[in-house]
Amino acid sequence: MLGAYLIAGLLVIPVTILVGVTAIVFPPFTAFFYSLSGCVLNAILTYGIGAALGKVPLQNFAGRKLDRLSKRLARRGILSVMVIRNVPMAPYTLVNMLAGASRIEFKDYVVGTCIGMAPGIGVLTFFVDRLLKTIREPDWTNILLIGFAILGVALLLWRIKRRLKKNEEEK
After folding, report:
1. DSSP string of 96-141?
2. If pLDDT is split at 50, 70 and 90, which confidence band does 46 have?
3. What percent of the chain has a predicted confidence (pLDDT) above 90?
């Protein structure tokens, strides 16, 4: 499973799809562990590729938007990585490579990735598990749990968006 995450990183397959498939195939706790481990390994591999390529080739490919992302990553270390992991700004692989080419420290990058990815992976794994259970055994408890999961994700994304907008206005 972890090898699939590494190959997917090289093929620029969205990690959300990988996490969803992992949650379908494995029980929730196993899926969470495989997904988080796979995402972190994927991030480390593609960070290394970005570090080897350097900043200029990635900026030429990615453009100005990702140049701003690179500066944000380097500015606040772990916190920046945590936030970027929860806001879909660019493909996961591209963000990882850009982080490798930027000035962000490897340790900050890995810790920020672990902390930043865990909540989303947990929610997605829980959601897929409940959805499958509801399909197999439709009852009000499962339907309500799915509704709460959707509401929780929506509130989290709204709060992150509001926080980012506030940070942009302060600059």
Report:
1. HHHHHHSS--HHHHHHHHHHHHHHHHHHHHHHHHHHHHHHHS--HH
2. very high
3. 32
Residues 6+ apart with CB under 8 A from 1: 22, 26, 34, 38
The overall pTM is greater than 0.85: no
The position carrying tokens 């988080």 is 36
Contact in structure between 127 and 35 (CB atoms under 8 Å): no
For 6-162, list the strands marked E by DSSP. Answer: none
DSSP class of residue 77? T
Using alpha carbons only, what angle is made at residue 27 by residues 24 and 31, rounded to the nearest 5 degrees? 70
In the numeric block, which tokens belong to residue 55?
A: 């900043």
Dihedral angle computed from the Cα positions of residues 67, 70, 76 and 80, in that order, rounded to the nearest 10 degrees = 110
Exposure class string for 25-41: b at 16+ Cβ within 10 A, else e: ebeeeebbebbbebbbe
How far apart are alpha carbons 74 and 78 in whole angstroms? 9
Residues 6+ apart with CB under 8 A from 103: 74
Q: Please, which residues have CB within 8 angstroms of residue 152's CB and are 6 or more apart in sequence?
A: 123
